[in-house]
Design a protein that fits this description.
With 67 residues, this protein is mostly helical. Helix content is 94%, strand content 0%.
């Protein structure tokens, strides 16, 4: 993977001006960061929802046995 990144960087260096190259790197970084933040938020919400479902089921089971 690292070799691929270096070869892409070398290709971009040869065919793009330096400003375009830096702009492209920052755009890729922003989109990668947004994607990672979105995945982390989804996982947190998913885990909280699953924990809530588990607690509700056990509460119903306890209240049914108590009655």
């Amino acid at each position: 993977m690292k070799g691929l990144s270096l070869s892409v960087l070398a290709f971009l260096t040869l065919f793009l001006s330096s400003c375009e190259l830096v702009g492209g790197i920052f755009k890729a970084g922003v989109w990668t960061g947004l994607l990672i933040v979105g995945i982390v938020l989804f996982l947190i919400i998913f885990l909280i929802a699953k924990m809530g479902e588990r607690n509700n089921c056990s509460w119903r089971a306890l209240s049914a046995h108590a009655a």
